[in-house]
């Protein structure tokens, strides 16, 4: 394989690993958040995905909202307060005639007796009757959405941000802590992220436009690969977009089957 092929394979592999079938703005929390409790941030929620849970109550069919409430109760017993929110707009975009996801029945398939929270969520969310349903961490809660909504809808949201003498790398950390939106930085040009800058993003700037300007400070750009935001050089980003478009066109092209030879 050429150096070009190895590079692309590595990027796509990285993207698939970070996609996590899982890691949008929602409308209906399953349980109201207790504001007297300590709020968990994105990193704490990522760690919590490894926490084992008891699957006994989830091996029989229950409404999706009830399944999430069971998980909440189990973690509350361990001192963790978590919230789940559904991106109803993304589900309506995907299946306009279907009701909100909370009422659909789900259950855990045969799993270890104490699967992790991440394993349980992936299995439960994956049973919702939508196109590639998934979940991700949004600042201080878990959001349930479709794969299409997981990245692109978030990039379209509006958020005021301010940076003062901050490195690009530090700004990406701040963005993650504020939104849960993770950016994978190309290791080949990671040194550029040490560039410092000051900027105010106000008046309803979208997260996507703010991110593009932040990366531009270090002569970087980003491309979305399998719902993963990958920051690299503008030239490499453009090359990857071209390859993505090429693959999309190939996937949408009609396929032909040769007729069997006449006997």
Structure description:
The chain is an alpha/beta fold. It folds into two domains: 134 residues, no CATH class; 91 residues, Phage tail protein beta-alpha-beta fold (3-Layer(bab) Sandwich), CATH 3.55.50.30. It contains nine helices and ten strands. The strands form four sheets. A three-stranded mixed sheet has the order 2-5-4.
Give a quick summary of the entry.
With 263 residues, this protein is α/β, with parallel strands linked by helices.
Query: How many DSSP-defined strands?
Result: 10
**N/C terminus separation:** 41 Å
What percent of the residues sit in helical stretches (DSSP H or I)?
Answer: 25-40%
Apparent shape: globular
Largest sheet: 3 strands, mixed
Overall pLDDT, averaged?
A: 80
Oligomeric status: single chain
H-E order = HHEHEHEHEEHEHEEHEEH
Q: What Rg, in angstroms, do the CA atoms define?
A: 21 Å
- Unreliable segments of 5+ consecutive residues: 1-36, 255-259
> Helix- and strand-based class?
alpha/beta
Number of discrete helical segments: 9
Descriptors for this entry?
single chain; 263 residues; alpha/beta; Phage tail protein beta-alpha-beta fold; 2 domains; 3-stranded mixed beta sheet; 9 helices; 10 strands; 39% helix
Lay out the secondary structure.
Layout (H helix, E strand, L loop, with lengths): L2 H17 L22 H7 L13 E2 H13 L7 E3 L1 H7 L10 E2 L10 H9 L7 E6 L2 E6 H9 L5 E7 H12 L3 E3 L10 E6 L5 H10 L4 E5 L2 E5 L1 H19 L11
Parallel strand pairs: 2-5, 7-10
Antiparallel strand pairs: 1-3, 4-5, 6-8, 9-10
Helix pairs in contact: 3-5
């Amino acid at each position: 394989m050429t150096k070009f092929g190895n590079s692309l394979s590595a990027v796509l592999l990285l993207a698939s690993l970070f996609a996590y079938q899982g890691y949008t703005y929602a409308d209906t929390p399953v349980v109201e958040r207790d504001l007297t409790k300590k709020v968990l941030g994105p990193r704490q929620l990522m760690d919590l995905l490894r926490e084992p849970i008891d699957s006994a109550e989830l091996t029989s069919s229950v409404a999706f909202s009830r399944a999430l409430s069971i998980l909440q109760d189990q973690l509350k017993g361990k001192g963790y307060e978590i919230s789940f929110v559904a991106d109803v707009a993304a589900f309506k975009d995907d299946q306009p005639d279907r009701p909100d996801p909370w009422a659909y029945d789900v259950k855990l398939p045969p799993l270890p007796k104490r699967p992790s929270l991440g394993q349980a969520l992936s299995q439960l969310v994956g049973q919702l009757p939508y196109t590639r349903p998934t979940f991700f961490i949004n600042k201080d809660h878990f959001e349930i959405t479709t794969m299409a909504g997981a990245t692109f809808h978030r990039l379209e949201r509006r958020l005021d941000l301010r940076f003062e003498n901050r490195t690009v790398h530090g700004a990406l950390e701040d963005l993650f802590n504020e939104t849960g939106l993770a950016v994978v930085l190309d290791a080949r040009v990671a040194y550029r992220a040490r560039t410092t800058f000051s900027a105010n993003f106000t008046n309803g700037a979208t997260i996507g436009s703010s991110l593009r300007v932040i990366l531009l400070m270090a002569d970087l750009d980003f491309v979305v690969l399998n719902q993963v935001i990958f920051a690299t050089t503008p030239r490499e980003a453009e090359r990857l977009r071209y390859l993505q478009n090429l693959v999309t066109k190939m996937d949408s092209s009609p396929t032909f089957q040769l007729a069997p030879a006449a006997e």
